[in-house]
Amino acid sequence: SGSSAAAPLPEEDCMKLNPSFLGIALSSLLAIDLWASKRLGVCTGEGSAWGSVRPLMKVIEVSGHGIPWLLGTFYGLCQSDSSAAREVLLNLLFALLLDLVLVAVVKGIVKRRRPTHNKMDMFVTISVDKYSFPSGHATRAALVCRFVLHHLVLAVPLRVLVVLWALIVGVSRVMLGRHNVTDVLFGLLLGYALYSVVEYCWLSPLSAPALFALW
Known about the structure:
The structure is a single chain. The chain is an all-alpha fold. It has one domain (21-214): Up-down Bundle (Vanadium-containing Chloroperoxidase, domain 1), CATH 1.20.144. It has helices at residues 2-5, 11-17, 21-40, 54-63, 66-79, 83-110, 136-151, 156-175, 181-200, 209-213.
C-alpha cells in the first residue's frame, strides 16, 4: 500500500544504503589486504609458486617461535654466573612472557581468522593460534630485535643480521600464508612499542629483589 511504501527504512538498512566514508575506506583496505596477502602467499604448499622454499620458511618460523626463545632464555638464566647477564636475561624472559600474554589477549578480542589458504601445520600451537591478528612471530621478532640491539654489544654486521632476521620472520608469515599483511605490520609495531614498556618496567635487584634472590 501507499502508506507502507512511504514508511521509513530501519536504521540498519539506511546505514547499508548510505555507508560512511570511513566504512568504505576500511572495507577497501581490508579487500586490498586480503588480495595482497593471497598474492604474496607463495609458499603456502609444496605445489605453490615458491613451494621449494617452504622448508626454509618453516625453519625461519621456528626461529621466531615463543617456545625456543623461552627455553633458551631460561636455560641461559640458570647457567649464567654474572649478575649483569642475569639481569638482562631475566628482563628478556619477562619481555617474552609479556609478549605471549598480550598477543593472546588481542587475538582473543579481535578473533580474526587465519587466511583461507593457510595450511595448519604450524609448530606447537595453542587455542588462540587459530586467530591471526596480530602475528605473534612478528611481535616477538620486533621485541627481541630491539632488546638485543640495546643490551648486547654486537659488531655492525651482526646488528644488521638481527634486523634482517626480524624482517624476514615477518615476511615469512605472509609467504607461508599464516597471516595477512596487516597482521604482520601491526605485530611489528606492537613488538617495537612493547620494548618501551619493558624498559619502563625494567627489573633490577633494587626494584625486584625477590626475583633476583631466586637466582
